[in-house]
Amino acid sequence: MRFVIVTGLSGAGKTEATRSLEDLGYFCVDNLPPTLIPKFAEACLQSDGKIDKVALVIDIRGGIFFDDLFESLKYLKDNEFKYEILFLDAADEILVKRFKESRRSHPLSPDGRVITGIENERKKLRELKDRADNIVDTSKYAIKDLREKLNLSYGTGKEVDRSLSITVLSFGFKYGIPMDADLVFDVRFIPNPFYIPELKPFSGSDEPVKNYVLSQAETTGFLTRLEDMLKFLIPNYVREGKRQLIIAIGCTGGRHRSVAIATETNNLLNTKGFKSTIEHRDIDEDAHRGAKKL
């Protein structure tokens, strides 16, 4: 049985995550008092296989009952009941914006500032986040993006338990390091096409920039060492039961060098038989911000 505990910051997308899991055939229970988790888990086991995928949403709405969560998790572990924790997070400014748009107050600060509630909630959830098997930062995710990510991690039943889903993510350091990254590589040491007038308008997905970046001796040396590292790391991650790996590759703006190298890395992984997808987080970020200013 796949037993997922869905938790995280208020406003980070737990409701949408629950809907996605329901669509994937999970039996979902929202805001179950943590003290009831052991009894619920035992009831599921006694269903003769009729309930094989379960998702419990547990968060600070449980109030005084929330403190019972770790005791319940200890009970599950002591009784060799396998579970996994999905933790949804988002940047503070994004959470504040979402609360303001929805005109909701924060559960930990109903009569005060939303940011105060967020700060208190982060402290309260810190240990739970440290225990999480899968952390998803929804700051830049549209609903469809979150659904796709959850489908990738939870949509293929037992098959996903035996495989590792890899996302190679390009980004710009000036927009922040991706919160859900497992491995972060800085490629700002490679000559920058941004300063070459005829290359500046293009991105790392275009042949002129791609050829320029990949032709650099620094790039060749980096990719050779990165391939060796991933050959070593990935089988060990699989053996330890890791289901998702986010490889983040960053340059200054996330448009030229990181895009070209992330694409090459993704192609390499697929060539080697790994299940890898590519995502360019900031490839058009400068253009979007320029349009907003206009």
TrEMBL record:
The keyword GTP-binding applies. The keyword GTP-binding applies. It comes from the Bacteria. GTP binds at D59, I60, R61, G62. Residues 165-284 form the RapZ C-terminal domain. GO terms for molecular function: ATP binding; GTP binding. Keywords: ATP-binding, GTP-binding, Nucleotide-binding. SUPFAM superfamilies: P-loop containing nucleoside triphosphate hydrolases (SSF52540). Residues 1-155 form the RapZ-like N-terminal domain. ATP binds at G8, L9, S10, G11, A12, G13, K14, T15. It holds the Pfam family PapZ_C. HAMAP family: RapZ_like. This is UPF0042 nucleotide-binding protein.
